[in-house]
Design the sequence.
């Protein structure tokens, strides 16, 4: 009986120390200061210059269900790691407490040097001479279509890109607001659809100058991926519904 009791205690101790999940069922709520005190947000240090690197590591021991917002993306869990672009940004930790309340805290960071360079697989713009910047004009579905024979700029995307659920990054160097193509209100928006105009995955999505990201979802993959890869082969298409943007490059990072 003593051996059985000790085994039970050991199992309970292991479960209590599991770092991948926090049991919030016994708690109430937590303050922002307490959440911040139980969190760690760090950048690696370049051994040569002593400056902040670009590898971000986040963790928390707070008794909450944690969500990290990093570079516009939400990552669930009490641990996250990501290669960052250079420059200043803010990491947000949001904790869902046992009583249903949410608490958020911000952590400003500044990546100064690339200690682990971000690699890119280009679909457009790797050679700026052969693939110069272009305007994606309002209503021009051909210019935004990823197709070797029915698009103007972007190539077909392969099955690995679609079903790998990659996030496409568009470098946009200029943007100009304009009227809605089926109305008069002015703005800067894009429709995410397939090349056959059905279905529409998202409509009137805000877009603008800088880095604009488009996560490929399972719905997009099934509709747009080549038939040989298990999709319907209808191509991804971006349709500007208000205004226009100048695109320098398109790629995904890894």
Sequence:
């Amino acid at each position: 009986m003593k051996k059985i009791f000790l085994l039970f205690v050991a199992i309970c101790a292991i479960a209590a120390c599991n770092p991948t999940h926090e049991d919030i069922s016994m708690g109430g709520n937590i303050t922002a200061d307490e959440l911040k005190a139980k969190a760690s947000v760090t950048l690696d240090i370049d051994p040569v210059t002593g400056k902040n690197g670009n590898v971000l590591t986040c963790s928390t021991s707070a008794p909450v269900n944690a969500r990290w917002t990093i570079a516009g993306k939400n990552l669930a869990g009490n641990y996250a790691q990501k290669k960052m672009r250079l420059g200043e940004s803010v990491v947000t930790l949001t904790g869902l407490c046992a009583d249903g309340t949410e608490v958020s805290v911000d952590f400003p960071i500044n990546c100064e040097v690339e200690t682990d360079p971000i690699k890119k697989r280009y679909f457009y713009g790797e050679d700026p001479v052969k693939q110069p910047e272009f305007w994606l004009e309002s209503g021009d579905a051909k210019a935004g279509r990823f197709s070797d024979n029915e698009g103007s700029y972007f190539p077909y995307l392969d099955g690995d890109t679609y079903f790998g659920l990659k996030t496409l990054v568009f470098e946009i160097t200029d943007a100009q607001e304009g009227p809605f193509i089926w109305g008069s209100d002015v703005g800067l928006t894009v429709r995410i659809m397939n090349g056959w105009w059905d279905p529409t995955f998202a409509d009137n999505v805000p877009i603008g100058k800088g880095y604009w990201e488009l996560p490929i979802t399972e719905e997009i993959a099934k509709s747009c991926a080549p038939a040989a890869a298990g999709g319907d082969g209808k191509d991804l298409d971006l349709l500007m519904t208000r205004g226009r943007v100048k695109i320098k490059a398109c790629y995904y990072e890894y």
Q: What stands out?
A: The CA atoms of residues 29 and 77 lie 18 Å apart. DSSP finds four helices and 15 strands in the chain. Residues 1-26 have pLDDT under 50 and may be disordered. The two ends are 54 Å apart (CA to CA).
